[in-house]
Amino acid sequence: MDTGMITDVMRDAVGVVIKLGGPMLVLSMMAGVALAIFQAVTQIHEQTLSFILKVVIVVGVLLIAGGWMLTTLQDYAREVFDLMTRL
User: With contact defined as beta carbons under 8 Å apart, do 62 and 23 qualify?
Assistant: First the structure.
């Protein structure tokens, strides 16, 4: 196994992590910003609102896209194991 193959595997791993974690992070960040603006306008400063909203969004994304996430992770794992058996 040369340096190029290791670089390719690590680059693919980072791509998979971004693909899997990106939607949850972006949606929870957008919800946090929207709720922060709402709290600033209404002067309601309850910290549990933000936490609960973010948890609900992350769980919703996992319920909706969980199958796709699992398939993506399995495909990457198969590629890595196939690469290991070929060497």
Answer: no
